[in-house]
Amino acid sequence: MDLLRWGRDPWGEWVLTHISWNLFWGSLFAGILFFVAHASYMFLSAHRKRAAAETDALEAKFKSLPAKIPRHSLVARLFHWVMAAAMFVLLFTAFLPIVGVQFPWVTWHWIAGLVLTASILFHIVHATFWLDFWSIWVGPKDIPEFKAEILRELGHEVEGPKPGKYPLGNRLYHLAIVVAGLLVVGTGVFMMSRVRTPLFTRNPYLFRDSTWGLTYVGHGLAGVGLVGLVIAHVYFAVRPEKWWITKSMIFGWITRRQYLEHHEPSRWAVAGGGTSSAKPSQNV
Amino acid sequence: MAVIRDVIPAFELFQPASVDDALRLLDQHGADAWVLAGGLDSMDWLKDRIKRPRYVVDLSQIAELRGIKEANGGLEIGAMTPLTEVVRHPVVRDRFGLLMLAAELVASPQIRNQGTIGGNVTQDTRCWYYRGGWNCYRAGGNTCYADTPTAVNREHAIFDADRCVAVSPSDTAPALVALDAQMVIRGKNGERVVPAEQYFIGPGVDITRMTVIKHGELLTAIRIPATWAGAQFYFEKVRDRQVWDFPLVNVASAIKPDGGNIGSARIVVGAVSCVPRRLANVEAAIAGKPRNEATADMAGKMAVEGAQPLRYNGYKVPLMRNLVKRAIRGSEGGTWTS
User: Fold this and answer.
1) What's the predicted TM-score (pTM) here?
2) Which pLDDT band, with edges at 50, 70 and 90, does A269 fall under?
3) Distances (CA, A) of B166 to B41, B107, B174, B271
């Protein structure tokens, strides 16, 4: 099975041209396989979550917390849904023709790509200057939480730390989306120079053929990677035990009990939380 | 241009006697199979060694694909019917003269004897970068070598270029679109009928194909309805060499008069985009108007609105404008039949 496609440039040199669309099917299959495997595991396993009594005790301790804990600001939610809409348009316009649904897709694709690029740029600025920038990233400090989460998933009662504002899965997913998203928009913006748009004059000579090949391959790899990532994201968004997170992305808040059940108040301090030593975070 | 060599690389030749057998062979050999109709397009590819199929399915022995028969006041033309037979058929000449005019201007008499109407509408583009084996978008690459600042592109598209700027080189295609023909396509899953206007696809939809025909499918027949039979037809083709060449631009029109005015019309221009370009806006604008110089002038101007010429094909804009004007006038520079 070919993974990459090659061609000869006008000087007779072999250069990369595209990824093989076999990789699209691979990513689609991997996404669906993950969904089936995880759903089966969750159905059959005895994963642990914070006990009700423990959450009751926390509620008693953090009585001063508001009933609704702000989780995502309106601006952050708008960004998320605009990005999601752009992502779906991009994926459908890119891959429906591959599966045989043919239509003039290029214009829709680059317009959605520009929307995605603009929303990502906005998000970078917004998150850097107005939000708790580091709350979404993962690093060595998260290794204890990672171990605890794995043990809980395997059915063990562990004392290990709960997540801060974002569950570990969210942060790892965000990291993957950052890599794939930046690669896809970074390459896509350059690829637009080969498409006729009203925005600028075509310039097919921007790169040499081998560089264009790498650009197309990078775009393709990120694109098929996003297929699997989006399947995983949608799957988690609709899982019943995750609805509280999904709802928070719609309404902007979670309940006090959800906050105490799923988060470590010391790692995500909320105004009114009284006993915490951590600085109250802003809403991402 | 690629160097034409003496010997075509070896392939296994099949000459099925029925469409079902041909479809079975195409299904069996998948992308390794090549469909051979009259061979005028295929032999270029094979002799240039740009295409190297392992299996060639020659349709010339399939009797059911040949011949012209009348049906429901219209015609059904087998896809393997030679162009000469189309030109000489009495009903084509009497009632669908537009197709006769177009087919008669295809290449040379020898080529029309060998070339088929199915092959003429389904042939690949003549973009010489693509035909020369360059790894362009249409060939599966990521570059259009004809749409660069220094490319030689005087034959290429002035409309609807979408990464690729190749054009359909067919003369009969605009005539069939103007006649509202239906293309009958058969595959292993059965038969489908596609309007000629939708038979051709541009690079925005699929950059590697010129028509909706997929691997494993065959164009088996072309049905021309009675709708435009006996209308006033006009076909004109401009080419570099009058004796034998592909069109730089061609125009096909069918007009039904209503009193002294134009009742309804279909006007289609070829070789200005990847698909025969139907001028629906012009058709609507001229309906009900007198067939005079003012209407022709308006139609010509409307026809070229939105044209985006490349470096060397700007001449196609006035050429197309004037051809459309002449198609509306009908009496100058071309032939009338009715």
Assistant:
1) 0.86
2) confident
3) 16, 19, 16, 9
